[in-house]
Amino acid sequence: MKALVYTSPRRVELQDLPAPQATPQEVLVRVRASGVCGSDLDGFLGKSKKRIPPLVLGHEFSGEIVEVGAEVAGFRPGEAVTVYPLVTCGQCRYCQSDRHQICPNRKVYGLDFHGALAEYVCAPPRCLFRLSPGMSFVEGALVEPLANALHVLDRCPSVEGQTGLVYGAGPIGVVVFWAAKHFGARRLALVDVNAQRLAKLKDWGADLVIHGSGQDVVKTVLEWTAGGGVDFAVDAVGHAICRQNILKCLAAGGTAVWIGLGEDFCEIDGRAMVIRELEIKGSYAYGLKDFARAISLLAQKTFPVQAFVSEAQLEQGQAVFEELASGHSPLLKAVFRI
């Protein structure tokens, strides 16, 4: 099968690999669309400790079932599916409470084993979600990032009628912004260092866009809110300065959600956390219910897929990853059609 293989930092190569063989407890999926996540880009750049080459990246994908294991019930060849990419134990207290994403035994496509930038993958039936009628495979590849966004917003006490800040206009930051707007946020600000992406998000309805290296983010946000600060803020970057800034931009009693993984450590003002009653919450991936909700939302056809997605072929893999790594690409989301 054709597969895009991460072979060394800043290098992916199109190779012919043996197609995986489904066990009696698995199905074989013919991948039709696979998105590039920011974590895949970190892998490409050699920043991800667990993504060890040679490795097929990719965990945001959809396709069609081509083979069903003898012990699998409820699925048949030809069905269009997306795959929950965290393979978990299903037995621990986290799995039992629909917190599969923090299962200590989880394994992830494109991280712990070959992922979906390839023609075929195997999957256990518990990870399969049928696409709603009328959904495209590209929309199926967007289920994963949208599930991330839904999980992030669920970590906030409220979004409807609130003022928010999203730090980072990468794929996850953009989807968080769209979802917050969709669910009724009153005003939204967005910070990034990519002027082209900021211009696009202004067209999407951002009330305030801030260039992170050309403007004083904290001063700008506080002026925008007449000194009050925002009710919720999401850091989709993960650098210390981004995490520190969103805390400074919060209103008293506000909530910060961190999903970005750019850096491990961050120094914060503990006194301000206490006397202003701020909350910091981490958000990692999504549960199965988040995945199902993302499918339902995409099936409503309200998400601006064409404005968000740039499609490519696996043969363009090196060029696509290089462009995304450049830091000035206008691309919001790259999805490979396979």
Describe the fold and architecture.
The protein has helices at residues 38-44, 93-96, 137-141, 143-154, 171-182, 195-203, 217-224, 240-249, 270-275, 288-299, 305-308, 317-325; strands at residues 2-8, 11-16, 27-35, 55-56, 60-68, 80-83, 86-87, 107-108, 120-123, 128-130, 163-167, 187-192, 208-211, 230-235, 250-258, 279-282, 309-312, 333-337. It has 338 residues and is an alpha/beta fold. The chain is globular. Helices cover 29% and strands 27% of the residues. The chain is built from twelve helices and 18 strands. It folds into two domains: 2-146 and 286-337, Alpha-Beta Complex (Quinone Oxidoreductase, Chain A, domain 1); 156-282, NAD(P)-binding Rossmann-like Domain (Rossmann fold), CATH 3.40.50. Strands 3, 5, 6, 9, 10, 17 and 18 form a seven-stranded mixed sheet that branches. α4 (143-154) packs across α5, α4 (143-154) packs across α10 (288-299) and α7 packs parallel to α8.
String of helices and strands: EEEHEEEEHEEEHHEHEHEHEHEHEHHEHE
Radius of gyration: 20 Å
Overall body shape: globular
What share of residues is helical? Answer: 25-40%
Q: Work out the number of β strands.
A: 18
Low-confidence residue ranges: none
Q: Biggest β-sheet, characterized?
A: 7 strands, mixed
Strand-pairing-aware structural class: alpha/beta
Strand content: 25-35%
Number of domains: 2
Head-to-tail CA distance between termini: 11 Å
According to CATH, the homologous superfamily of the largest domain is Medium-chain alcohol dehydrogenases, catalytic domain
The CATH architecture category of the largest domain equals Alpha-Beta Complex
What is the CATH topology of the largest domain?
Quinone Oxidoreductase, Chain A, domain 1
Mean pLDDT score, rounded?
A: 97
CATH class of the largest domain: Alpha Beta
Number of helices: 12
